[in-house]
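Journal club prep — side note

Before the paper discussion, L.F. wants everyone to see what a predicted structure for a comparable chain looks like in token form. Sequence:
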Amino acid sequence: MSFIACHDCDLIHRVDAVPEGSAATCSRCGAVLYQHKRDSLERTLALTVTGFILFVVANAFPFLGFKLQAKVHETILITGVQELYHQGMWILATVVLLTTIVMPAAQMMGLLYVLVPLRLNRLPWKLKEVFRLIQSLRPWAMMEVFMLGILVSIVKLGKMATIVPGIAAFAFMALIFVLAASMAVLDPHAVWERIKIQDNPPGIPVARGNPISCHTCHLLCRSYSHGGHGLTCPRCGTPLHRRKPNSISRTWALILAAAIFYVPANVLPITIVTSLGKQQADTIISGVIYFISSGMWPIALVIFVASVFVPLLKLLALGYLSFSVQRKSRWRPVDRTKIYRMAEVVGRWSMVDVYVVTILVAMVNLGALATIEAGPAAVYFCSVVIITMLAAMSFDPRLIWDQMEDRNE
């Protein structure tokens, strides 16, 4: 008999078989513990191969064309990164390059490296390290957010000029759905279960000691007398901690940093438009007002929610959770855990404004006729998004439930 601990509340459950296509959820907080996915490795491999082909096409062929009067400016996927770098925004260019090209490519190549040998019933060299890297890269591969930024940019530029989509744009759109499908059918447990564990069976009787759950592969490991310090998971090699080290202090530090950057991100201009010798600087809010005045309420709502409301809501949510843990609150732990999950999921979608700036800079580069440059707010806003994502990763939701355990003792 084997057991698994919930990664959100640390409640230990017995591992039972679930029907195909079903999932086992935590009886206390409702988190998904594990799922039974049909032919997970084979389907993920097929989708990853398809995705890699589409990725090559999306990067090798023309992406979008911008036609204004007699001038046509054609771009490829990496053009926006190059333009940001030439404008001196090398930090922003690096982030966009990593999140839209490097991370997705590394994720797909890593999956191919792991899944092809497993399909041939062989264990690839450094399987633990590579698959751990794949899982850690998942939140930072933001191609679907980039696609939303492309759609917003096309709507914004549609009144200025003619937008001509290239073959790479269609390949990129298909790639989004293929990658989403590959992540949906991938069962990490099916990969980890291929690794033989020595001297530490996956099933540990609950009564034996105080086991520690690995946050990467969810193996329940013996803690011995160390309290979990200095130990690593025998299956995936992840350092083991009963709780994330200095979780609350690190979360507060990141919240404070993000709050400081949030002000210039909304006050300073995020784009500077030069047209026929005239300059116009736009902030995030002025961009929202532009879409409202143009009658494009859905686009205005998307920009406002993703760029203004979500970052602020995430700061408030993480601040409240950290404060409630410090105050040893026992109020509605299930609801507070749901707040944490929401904050963890929605934060990455705030990158849409950064990607809108990238697309605008790439497409509107017609010299004296029309040019768009990234403003200083773009760097601050990008910092807010990344720091709030790191803050969510630093917070340990199991701390919410520790007070409930203390009450039951």
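L.F.'s comment for the group: The longest strand covers residues 64-68. Keep this in mind when we get to the figures.
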